[in-house]
């Protein structure tokens, strides 16, 4: 049994979304993707570090011919966005003419994914969509359409299942919210 309360650095967190619910949400995302990408050989681009667990569990639920690759885009420090998005790092694939699905852990202001989208669209993919495990809808400040959403959550700071608080918490199997 996972603990209901944990401490990371100077903060306490309580369980918010148990692993079972996370995995059920991922199965539902995968069902949508499986239906939409039949015969399209999509290339999934997972955003490191946060999306690594989401990407892993989502891939196990796909029944498609597909590829996956990983890239980095932004830094997010403490509990607030730094407001700066760095370059796209680590994308080796030529995405021209490919069907791209971006895998993101959480969309908050939308800035990270928005900047990435602009960068990738310039490389002329055949199509590009976003799959996010978590969405904070009150916070999206950019004209973004997130086609595949695992769970919609309130504006709480969360950790676990890939998401960190200053480096800690990524290894937790459940998602916790700050107290
Ligand atoms: P955005 O650019 O949409 O504001 O923020 C996206 C990135 O900020 C996410 O990929 C994630 O790394 C980080 N982020 C946003 N909200 C949270 C949160 O509640 N917890 C954690 N750990 N990271 C978050
Ligand atoms: Mg992220
Ligand atoms: Mg982080």
From TrEMBL:
Annotated Phosphoribosyltransferase domain residues: 20-165
InterPro entries given in the database record: HGPRT, Hxn_phspho_trans, PRTase-like, PRTase_dom
GO terms assigned for molecular function: guanine phosphoribosyltransferase activity; hypoxanthine phosphoribosyltransferase activity; magnesium ion binding; nucleotide binding
Location of this chain's protein in the cell: Cytoplasm
GO biological process: GMP salvage; guanine salvage; hypoxanthine metabolic process; IMP salvage; purine ribonucleoside salvage
Cofactor: Mg(2+)
Gene3D superfamilies, sorted: 3.40.50.2020
Catalysis: reaction(s): IMP + diphosphate = hypoxanthine + 5-phospho-alpha-D-ribose 1-diphosphate; GMP + diphosphate = guanine + 5-phospho-alpha-D-ribose 1-diphosphate
Key words, A-Z: Cytoplasm, Glycosyltransferase, Magnesium, Metal-binding, Nucleotide-binding, Purine salvage, Transferase
Biological or metabolic pathway of the protein: Purine metabolism; IMP biosynthesis via salvage pathway; IMP from hypoxanthine: step 1/1
GO CC terms in record: cytosol
EC assignment: 2.4.2.8
Similarity remark: Belongs to the purine/pyrimidine phosphoribosyltransferase family.
NCBIfam families xrefs: HGPRTase
Protein name: Hypoxanthine phosphoribosyltransferase
Annotated source species: Adhaeribacter rhizoryzae
């Amino acid at each position: 049994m996972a603990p209901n309360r944990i401490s990371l650095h100077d903060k306490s967190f309580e369980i918010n979304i148990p692993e079972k619910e996370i995995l059920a949400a991922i199965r539902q995302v995968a069902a949508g993707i499986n239906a939409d990408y039949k015969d399209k050989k999509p290339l999934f681009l997972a955003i490191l570090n946060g999306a690594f667990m989401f990407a892993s569990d989502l891939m196990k639920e796909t029944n498609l011919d597909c590829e996956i690759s990983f890239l980095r885009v932004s830094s997010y420090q403490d509990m607030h966005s730094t407001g700066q998005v760095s370059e796209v790092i680590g994308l080796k694939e030529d995405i021209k003419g490919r069907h791209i699905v971006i895998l993101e852990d959480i969309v908050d202001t939308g800035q990270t994914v928005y900047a990435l989208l602009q960068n990738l669209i310039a490389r002329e993919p055949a199509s590009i969509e976003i799959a996010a495990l978590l969405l904070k809808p009150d916070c999206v400040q950019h004209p973004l359409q997130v086609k595949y959403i695992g769970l919609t959550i309130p504006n709480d700071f969360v950790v676990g299942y890939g998401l960190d608080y200053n480096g800690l918490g990524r290894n937790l199997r459940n998602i916790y919210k700050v107290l």
